[in-house]
Amino acid sequence: MMPRKPAYTEPAIDPWAVAEPPQRPVPAWGMSLLLHAVLMLAMGWLVRIPSPGVLPEPERTAGIVLTRQTRDEVTYFSDADADADAAFTDGGWEAGERFRDAELSESDGLPGVSELPGDVATALPAGESTRAHGTGDWSAALPRADALTAGQGPSRALGEGTRTSVFGAEGYGSRFVYVFDRSGSMSWFGGTPLAAAKAALSNSLRSLQPTDQFQIFFYNHEFTVFNPSQAATPGMLFATEDNLAQAERFVFGISAVGGTEHVAPLQAALRLAPEVLFFLTDADEPQLSEAELDRLRRMNRGTAIHAIEFGVGPSVGGDNFLQRLARQNDGQHVYVDVMQLGNRSERRGPR
User: Fold this and answer.
1) Which of 56, 151, 222, 325 has the most C-beta neighbours closer than 10 Å?
2) Which CA distances in Å does 188 have to 141, 175, 183, 195, 198?
3) How far does Cα 300 stand from its chain's mean position?
4) pLDDT by residue (tens digit) across 268-291?
5) CB atoms near residue 82 (< 10 Å)
6) Pairing label, strands 276-281, 175-181
7) For the whole prediction, is pTM greater than 0.70?
8) Domains along the chain with CATH numbers
9) Most confident among 74-88, 107-121, 201-215 (mean pLDDT)
């Protein structure tokens, strides 16, 4: 009789016991991946450490940042810095560096505020010192402030000046301009007014010195200028014998005709910046308005305007535009009764 096998009995299971997973060896590729990951983390940590001699980058807001690196420092420039350094962009950073270096080198040799003299005038060379170097008295050679402005005033650099007159209105200087009326009314009374005006003008021209300068305007509704050289823009001429002879031929060739327009020839004459302007007219109309008088006064840069008024009979007095023109421009006003011109001995013909 075969012996009976013992009955199989399953071992008791502990419900609180945790089953452990079977242990498996780590594959080679996993170990390699883990090793590479550790190496990359280590390299990233090392890169974040600044190298010796290089300054850490300052914190900046978002935007375009430029850098300029020298031997000892790194400078960062944002958009705002670029605006401030616009002066250096034309020539590039290299030109900017030269400019900054020049500023630093020059400022190193400048004295401080405490080193400056209390009275700056004491630091300037004396007149004797300038003359010792052959420069003369430099203070006397400096131009006046009004000579540096637009519309430069008259100058007396040539000669010592001349005194001349027209019908008793006297002027002194070296630059003279004559503005004479030649409208149709100057031919009245047998042409006596225009003939007397020409004679007075000729006498005044003959009193000038060769170093003096002059110009002549005759006007009616337009004006004519003495221009022997036919220049595009007639200017002042020296009172040489030849110029005076040509001027007399020009003067005595003028006839009286047409209407009257005062402003244009006066403005053209003032642009020549004479020292003395003789203005002769017999016109009651048209009168210069207050606005026109003011415009002439404002464009005047030192010219004395003498107004010679031709009238019929004795002066009635009052205050007309010719008197205001002379008064506002440091000149004289002279009234001439044309009825008395025949008794004057100023009439003469051309040479």
Assistant:
1) 325
2) 53, 32, 10, 11, 15
3) 19
4) 999 999 999 999 999 878 999 999
5) 15
6) parallel
7) no
8) 63-93 (no CATH), 162-343 (3.40.50.410)
9) 201-215
